[in-house]
Peptidase U35 phage prohead HK97
Amino acid sequence: MNRAYSLLEVKEMDDDARVIRGIASTPSPDRMDDVVLPEGASFKLPIPLLWQHNHDQPIGHVTEATVTKNGIEIVAEIAKGVSDEIDRAWKLIKAGLVRGLSIGFRGLKTEQIPNSWGVIYEAWEWLELSAVTIPAQAEASITSIKKFDIGAPAASGTKSADGDASPGASGKTKKPVNLRPKEGNDMKTLAEQITALEAKRAANFARMEEIQSKAADEGRTKDEAEKEEFGTLADENDTIDEELKDLRRMERAKAIEAKPVNRAEKSAPVDTGASRAAVTVKGPKAAPGIEFARLAKVKALAFLSQGERRQTEIAKQLYGENSAVYGIVSKASVVAGSSVDGNWASELVGDETSVYADFVEFLRPMTIVGKFGQGGIPSLRTVPFRTPLIGQTGGGQAYWVGEGKPKPLTAFDFNRNTLDELKVATISVVTEELLRKSSPAADQLLRDALAGAVAERVDTDFIDPSKSASAGVSPASITNGVTAITSSGNDADAIREDVRALMATFVAAKNPPTAGVWIMSSATALALSLMVNPLGQSEFPGISMNGGTFMGLPVIVSEYFAPVSAGGYVALVNASDIYFADEGGVMIDVSREASLQMLDNPTNDTVTPTATSMVSMWQTNSVAFRAERILNWSKRRASAVALLDEVNWGLPAASA
């Protein structure tokens, strides 16, 4: 409940009837710099008259109240012959020892006072009036308690409908502390809020010391007004302490999230006047892979301008100085970015916030190799490039040996493997009109074009049984060379028989079942999810066209596990027996002068040129993007994969 104190100017006092006629004038700015406008009052007579704002000590009623611009003229009646406490209160008022009135109210409409901590109460609900003990200098002891006590509404007889929120387990409600600086500037940073709270806390504590010292110097305890002011200040400081804990917790979290500045910023002098570490405030994060597409667009537009516009200028115009793209191109506006060692972008590879790693993260759920190690699926065996990998293909045996008998020899079988850096590349063509559009849809279209092409090639070559190795160019698929088992049928019983056959082959090769992962087409997974038993229940719960689990093992689906004419494939893979090496980044190049053979299986090359139809990028106002990713894979053992072919699970027999 809000309270404003004023002096009681007694015009007439009727001792027998205990009626006081006077003016309860509202003050100018109070201790909190708040102003209560008399003409903003709304009330209903009679208004309870309390003693020292104690809700359990009513002493009478305000029977008349007239609002003027100078104050509120009141007529109050103090009860007679009810209790000794009320009689004592009347005597103190009559003797002039209690000279103050405090209006208890609830603010309805407020306005911030310019260049001040305080507010103006333009409209307020008058709830009670109290006789209080304050010194002659009324403004020196004004107290503001900004909440109405809903639990004990001053004998008003009704509860307010819209009160404070629940105080929680502590049972106490605390008033919020006004933190607007007197200069009128808004506080936007955590550091500014912390500084303002600490200053407010220090001012409150200084006033508390002043109140306590005054009472001690006069050899007495604090009077009622001093106790109330002291308690209000203490409550405010408790609120400030809790708020400071929250702000410092947020400050620590922001400091952890903050990223290192670039070298130029590191060399700049540090403002020693700052009391706290700077906090990095991030803008909205773009959708995965979008920043990579934006970077490609900026590089292409700079290339198209023939040097007339720098990459930094284009990035600033399209996405602003605070964008990730601007931060990257501003490192070096001449040298093209790539993820190889020695280039400016090499520092970004592996950084989850960089546009290169972000694009790779966007690619992962789109590819088979990217889904390993995610969502409970076992990980592939990650290895470095050009490092000899020694694997054991056959184990030795131990023997029991009698006393004095020779120990038999045993042989171990090993193989040696090395993963070289192989490159998967894709070229995507877009028109200059699309490239010059700065809409998010254009960025997304460019991202999807680059990502889709890379994902298709990686998936196809990773799982297609017909994909053999090309020395120095591309690896064989993990299913290449695997003798497939023919599916026995389409219904649930046949499917279980197929699973038993695959599992038997898989386990016989000493593959741990816990490392097994199913790989199948999304069409096959969808067919399994639609199968139901005679009771209408799902025959194979846990699987959907997006994956899930099948027979207790995780499932990876891919659109590029292409079916053959007789049916599709299903593979059971030992993830720990697949070597996988990944450079971790993506290199991007742009050209407008190139002429391309618009096929996904180009026939022309520089070794044996052949006549073919070519399309000029310059002639068609098109731009070609070439994205390259360096990766390689290999099976540790030939038996790491079991394969099932001619799979038509869930289809009617006539459709098989």
In short: Residues 174-258 form one domain. Residues 224-257 form the longest helix (34 residues). Confidence is low (pLDDT under 50) at residues 135-173, 181-185, 263-283, 332-353. The first strand starts at residue 2 and ends at 14.
